[in-house]
Design a protein that fits this description.
6-stranded mixed beta sheet, 34% helix, 19% strand, single chain, 439 residues, two-stranded antiparallel ribbon, alpha+beta, 14 strands
Length: 439
């Protein structure tokens, strides 16, 4: 059974181990034990939260501290999760209640979570590690709890302080509206929806990507990856396939999954310090008296010795009241570029916006009109027949000194005669000059 649960929680052990996996699969198939039955065995053999947590204190109160724990599957087995997001897996029959995220109003270990946890070393039968103790992971509620990769270890007989520094990143509205995701390298809320997670995170996106690839290549999924009613759990014969997919996603996830980090994100950086436990004054504290009363422990030397070999004390809290915030904004937009270029050109070359317009006019607009204008000495031909007694008037060019004038005077025969005068000439007939000088 220990080998079975190790394969279920440590997928990398299934690589190049097809023969033992086939033997285990034949063994359980002959006894009509399915993959879902093996998960139920894993769930029942793991210590429950009430067995593991001897004392719970949240914001200085012992109640209702235990109500905020959920017993959920992870990539390192079943774990007790405090302040988790909603978890729903109909195939495994797991549905955690959706509650508002817990928040704190101060810093220091008195304003955080304080636990006394019991390893119960003598009851160890199945374990995925090579140590006695616990593995802890501090993460955001919407993230996937990859305990196997990012968790840290605390051993029995120690008191551990985990001071958390919160780092927040956010984006402005201009970034979300004007910059594409491939340029800003992050996703704003609502740009990408996940199927099995309420809120987007990069780790959750990678998990769904791995689940989708496993479903396409292996037609199944491991127990710690979420799925719907149609996604079945993998038998042992498929563990080599899902192990290869899982390792491939971990190695090349940025190329094959398209999971950008969120623009608005919170990152927790823990600082871990520890000392031996219990100290000389622990038997005088209220916590010790409460444990002796509730757990029926001995208040003498035997009780102290049990604490040293089996029990650890754990505190997680915010180290400071304030944290770092990083804002993603447009540092240099099109307006800034035009302003900077105008300043540099004005300072170095003495150019201005009007100078640019003049250059555009001189090299483009003026050349266009020069190519398409009508020559000044060109006259339009009359559209009438040669016998017509009217002549079309033509507007003079800018070089004409005097107006173009035509005279229509009746001749002796009673018909109108035509006199043409050259443009720019002043040698008019006498009667015409008399009319002009009159005015």
């Amino acid at each position: 059974m220990q080998s079975t649960l190790r394969y279920m929680t440590k997928l990398d052990r299934a690589i190049n181990n097809e023969r033992p996996l086939k033997e285990l699969n034949q063994f359980y198939k002959s006894r009509n034990i399915s993959a879902l039955d093996l998960f139920k065995i894993l769930e029942e053999t793991a210590p429950s939260c009430s067995d593991m947590v001897m004392d719970c204190n949240w914001l200085g109160l012992t109640k209702p501290c235990m109500e905020f724990f959920s017993f959920l599957p992870t990539d390192d087995g079943m774990c007790c999760t405090f302040n988790s997001a909603k978890y729903f897996d109909p195939m495994l029959g797991i549905q955690s209640s959706a509650s508002e995220p817990l928040r704190v109003n101060g810093n220091g270990y008195r304003m955080g979570l304080n636990l006394v946890i019991d390893a119960n070393v003598d009851d160890y039968s199945v374990t995925t590690g090579k140590f006695d103790g616990f593995k802890i992971l501090v993460h955001a509620p919407e993230e996937f709890p990859d305990v196997a990769d990012r968790g840290f270890v605390i051993g029995p007989g120690t008191e551990t302080f985990v001071a958390v520094k919160g780092t927040t990143s956010f984006n402005t509205e201009e970034v979300a509206r004007e910059v594409a995701p491939d340029q800003r390298q992050c996703l704003v809320e609502g740009e990408k929806k996940l199927k099995y997670f309420q809120h987007y995170s990069r780790s959750a996106c990678m998990v769904e990507c791995a689940t989708r690839i496993m479903h396409d290549n292996c037609q199944c999924r491991p127990y710690f990856l979420r799925g719907g009613n149609t996604s079945r759990l993998c038998e042992f014969t498929s563990y080599t396939c899902i192990s290869n997919v899982y390792e491939d996603v971990r190695a090349r996830g940025d190329k094959i999954c398209d999971c950008l980090p969120p623009c608005a994100d919170i990152r927790y950086d823990p600082e871990v310090s520890y000392a031996s436990f219990p100290g000389r004054g622990f038997n005088l504290t209220r916590t010790f008296k409460r444990l002796v009363q509730e757990r029926n422990l001995s208040a003498g030397t035997d009780g102290t010795e049990y604490f040293k070999t089996n029990v650890a004390m754990f505190h997680v809290y915010y180290k400071e009241k304030t944290g770092m915030r990083y804002r993603t904004d447009i540092r240099f937009g099109i307006e800034d570029f035009i302003s900077a270029m105008g300043g540099l050109l004005g300072l170095g070359l003495g150019m201005s916006f009007i100078s640019v317009i003049e250059l555009v006019y001189f090299f483009i607009v003026r050349r266009f009109f020069l190519q398409h204008r009508i020559p000044s000495d060109q006259t339009l031909k009359s559209s009438h027949s040669p016998n017509s007694d009217e002549v079309r008037k033509v507007w003079p060019s800018s070089q004409t000194l005097s107006s173009v004038m035509t005279t229509m005077e009746p001749n002796v025969d009673g018909q109108r005669g035509l006199q043409l005068v050259r443009r720019g000439s002043l040698n008019l007939p006498a009667h015409m000059q008399a009319r002009l000088y009159k005015y």
